[in-house]
Amino acid sequence: MIPKDTEAEILRLSHAELWPVGTIANHLHLHHSVVRRVLHQDAVPGIALTVRPTMADPYLPFMLEMLEKFPRLRASRLFSMTKERGYPGHESQFRAIVARMRPKPKAEAFLRLRTLPGEQAQVDWGHFGKVTIGKAERRLYAFVMTLSWSRGIFLKFYLADHTANFLRGHTDAFQWFGGVPRTLLYDNLKSAVIERVKDAIRFNDNLLAFAGHHRFAPQPVNVARGNEKGRVERSIRYIRDSFFAARTWCDVDDLNAQAIAWCQGTAIDRTWPEDRTRIVRDMLTQERERLLPLPEHPFPVDERLDVRIGKTPYARFDLNDYSVPHGFVRRTLTVAATTDTVRIIDGNTVVATHARTFDKGAQLEDPSHIQALIDQKRQAKQHRGLDRLHHAAPQSQALFEAAALRGGGLGGLTSGLLKLLDQYGADTLDRSIAEALAAGTPHLAAVRQILDRRRREAGLPPPIAVALPDDPRVRNLVVHAHPLHCYDSLSNPEETAS
Predict the structure, then answer these.
(1) Assigned superfamily of 120-288
(2) Where are the alpha helices (H) located in 54-131, listed in sequence order?
């Protein structure tokens, strides 16, 4: 499009000054096709535009016939067909001719739709940009339901437009309106319509179950017929201008609190389009009396997902990890989530409950889950130590029994004996424990004293603790010293022969 004053100047130079098209185009820095278009659209009475013959004139009847049969035929294809019939011109000029000849679609007139009170509501999502929560960037969607007769608006924001949030929006809207409309009109969005081929429609199974529970009829609009749900479309545009523009809020809960206040104030006190002397509040009061009653029991609208628990006791859900008791590792559990809470379920038993986060990569833990795992690991470590001492120094079992009878702490005794085992070896420790028991001193200190005495008597240096790798296959390995006197016989052939 060019400005009106430029169009007027083109017409003046052509009709008053009799300038040719090329001169006008050079003077006004325009393409010659723009000048020709303005001159062809000239509607000044009494002035006829002289049209010079073109190379396309002999082919115009054929071109018109093809465009009437195939209104959406591309100019490139029509150019090839005309070229085959002898057209000598270039494609650029041909395209300009086709653009003038192509039949324009007829303007369609629409009837103003009227409904009865309580008969219909229109539903849609509106996208309102993105929100950063911690490390996550999430899309912000507005669920909007508009009652077709009273024009009452319900508005609530969610961080995703999946089916669970879609049904939550319905539930909250029905609660706010105080009833259920008989028919709900939808666009062909996936939350409502899974598949559609002309008039054959396959609804979302969850929406059908929800509609049956609330006794309303879901009805999608025709394809490419947004005017059929124009009331909710206008409501979304009204929300953008009247509510969301230049609004400040700290989180989605705060935004929704402001949205409900707006629905109860500004939105409901606007004038009713059918009668400018009345307001929506009065008409909504009348329509609420015609709505279907709410069901006795609520419909479950939780997000449900089966998750596999790995080696660590955490369930991954919506980009975050939630702890579970350590006894459920390597199992499949079910996550049931609301916008505020995440419950992890095994069959019919809730094994964990957490506050929901919309961050990314967060790890939410129940302290009792972690403490139980620590206690279990600590107990397992003690059992492994007792088992190692049992195989390395069998006399340690009698030492533990004697210590238990005296009320001594078994944990300290276990760790002390394991250190002595690493320093002196299995056989030396076992003999020292046996000597301490024989002397009636079943104490760790007595065992340590006997080991030190034996070391001094043998003239050995103090033992050096060997740093073993943290590998149970190495740490739990027991090596017993074998007697070596049998090797002496190998050096005496006569003794070997006998």
Answers:
(1) Ribonuclease H-like superfamily/Ribonuclease H (3.30.420.10)
(2) 60-69, 75-84, 91-101
For residue 10, is it left (φ>0), alpha (ψ between -120 and 50) or beta?
A: alpha
Taking the CA of residue 484 as centre, how many other CA atoms within 13 Å lie in the half-sphere pointing to its CB? Answer: 2
Write out pLDDT tens, residues 243-294: 999 999 999 999 999 999 999 999 999 999 989 999 999 999 999 999 999 9
- DSSP class of residue 180? B
CA nearest to 5, candidates 31, 36, 37, 28: 28
- Amino acid letter, 72: R
Average per-residue pLDDT in the chain? 85
* pTM, rounded to two decimals: 0.62
Q: What are phi and psi of 156, to 5 degrees?
A: -150, 140
- The highest-confidence range among 9-18, 201-210, 276-285, 401-410, by mean pLDDT, is 276-285
Which residues partner with 125 through β-bridges?
Answer: 143
Give dist(CA 95, CA 420) in Å, integer. 97
What's the CA angle centered on 211, arms 210 and 216, to 5 degrees? 150
Nearest CA among 180, 179, 196, 200 for reference residue 188 = 196
Q: Both tokens of residue 268?
A: 């409901």
Distance separating alpha carbons of residues 433 and 304, to the nearest angstrom: 60
Q: How many CA atoms lie within 13 A of 335 on its CB side?
A: 24
Contact predicate 181/293, CB 8 Å: no
Strands 183-186 and 217-220: parallel
Q: Tens of pLDDT along 205-214?
A: 899 999 999 9
Each residue's pLDDT tens digit, 34-65:
888 888 776 444 444 455 677 888 888 898 88
Residue 374 neighbours by CB under 8 Å, 6+ apart: none
Instruction: Look at residue 487 and give its three-state secondary structure.
Output: helix
Both tokens assigned to 256: 């929704």
4 vs 86: CA distance, rounded Å:
39
What residues does each domain of the chain span?
4-101, 120-288, 303-365, 374-475
Mean pLDDT, residues 441-469 taken together: 79
Q: By C-alpha distance, which of 132, 110, 380, 142 is closest to 263?
A: 142
pLDDT confidence of residue 50: 53
Q: How far apart are CA 3 and CA 21, in angstroms?
A: 18
User: Residue 498 has which token pair?
Assistant: 């006998």
- CA distances 188 to 192, 203, 225, 235, 273, Å, are 7, 10, 10, 18, 27
Residue 198, pLDDT above cutoff 50? yes
Phi, psi (deg, nearest 5) at residue 274: -75, -25
The CA-based angle 138-143-149, given to 5 degrees, is: 165
Question: Taking the CB of residue 241, how many other CB atoms lie within 10 A of it?
Answer: 9
Q: Is the dihedral of CA 87, 91, 93, 96 positive or negative?
A: positive
Say how far residue 114 (Cα) sits from the centre of its chain.
Answer: 39
